[in-house]
């Protein structure tokens, strides 16, 4: 009978051409001494997914994996402090547009720009919009057309230092040497000067770029960038009197 045959297989010795039943310790690793024969069935079925033993007997535990530098709390904190906003809309696209345009309003929301005056009226347009947290300010004329955009770097008037790319491919390092390296020699330059009401100012440089002009005002050390003013380029007619 089938039962008797199976029973005989279990009691057969290795020398009789049979095999021993598998023992519980076979699954934890290969023994150092050779063994004759093997188990009656495979210990591992490749079609089934088995969960690895978390603490196998007699096997050394693997060392814990070192945390990735980019995922450690300290690195994350440093990344947050060093990160600069990227992918923001180019502020030069505001120049020459009306502050009521839908696109201008979207950019104002993006940078958090709000009217400087607390007075609001439907028939009156503010001539100054600012975001002290972003370090951005814009000026408009009486018709609401944007005539200038200011980027603050020195913390004046309560503005935070502007973070991001300076328009025109000027990079993000607020120094005179870096602006020269990125934009080349300026089209115009000015020496340090003294204002009787506002005090001392450093030198300034002006570049006429594609579609706008960039005026950079530096600190009295002649190197640190205080403010960038973006304006539409002034078109001078040839032959006109100076």
Quick rundown:
The protein is of the alpha+beta class and 242 residues long. It has a domain at 98-231. The protein has helices at residues 2-11, 73-82, 102-111, 176-183; strands at residues 114-115, 128-131, 136-140, 146-152, 188-190, 193-195, 199-201, 204-209, 212-218, 225-231.
Describe this structure in words.
- It is a single chain.
- The protein is an alpha+beta fold and 242 residues long.
- It has a domain at 98-231.
- Helix content is 16%, strand content 19%.
- It contains four helices and ten strands.
- The chain has helices at residues 2-11, 73-82, 102-111, 176-183, and strands at residues 114-115, 128-131, 136-140, 146-152, 188-190, 193-195, 199-201, 204-209, 212-218, 225-231.
- Strands 1-2-3-4-10-9-8-5 form an eight-stranded antiparallel β-sheet. The chain has a two-stranded antiparallel sheet with strand order 6-7.
- A hairpin with a 6-residue loop joins β9 (212-218) and β10.
- The radius of gyration is 37 Å and the shape is globular.
- The N and C termini lie far apart (121 Å).
- Residues 1-12, 17-46, 53-57, 66-84 and 119-123 have low confidence and may be disordered.
């Amino acid at each position: 009978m089938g039962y008797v045959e199976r029973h005989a297989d279990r009691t057969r010795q290795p020398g009789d051409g049979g095999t021993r039943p598998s023992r519980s310790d076979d699954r934890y690793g290969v023994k150092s001494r050779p063994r004759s024969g093997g188990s009656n069935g495979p210990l591992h079925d490749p079609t089934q997914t088995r969960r690895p033993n978390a603490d196998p007997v007699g096997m050394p535990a693997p060392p814990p994996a070192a945390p990735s530098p980019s995922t450690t709390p300290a690195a994350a904190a440093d990344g947050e402090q060093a990160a600069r906003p990227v992918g923001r809309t180019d502020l030069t696209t505001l120049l020459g547009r009306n502050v009521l345009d839908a696109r201008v309003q979207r950019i104002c929301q993006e940078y958090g720009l709000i009217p400087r005056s607390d007075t609001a009226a439907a028939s009156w347009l503010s001539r100054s919009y600012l975001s002290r947290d972003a370090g951005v300010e814009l000026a408009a004329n009486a018709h609401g057309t944007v005539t200038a955009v200011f980027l603050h770097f020195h913390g004046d008037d309560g503005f935070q230092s502007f973070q991001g790319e300076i328009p025109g491919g000027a990079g993000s390092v607020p120094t005179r040497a870096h602006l020269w390296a990125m934009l080349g020699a300026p089209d115009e330059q000015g020496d340090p000067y003294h204002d009787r009401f506002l005090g001392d100012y450093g030198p300034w440089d002006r570049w006429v770029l594609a579609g706008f002009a960039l005026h950079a005002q530096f600190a009295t050390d002649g190197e640190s960038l205080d403010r960038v003013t973006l304006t539409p380029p002034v078109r001078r007619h040839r032959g006109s009197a100076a």
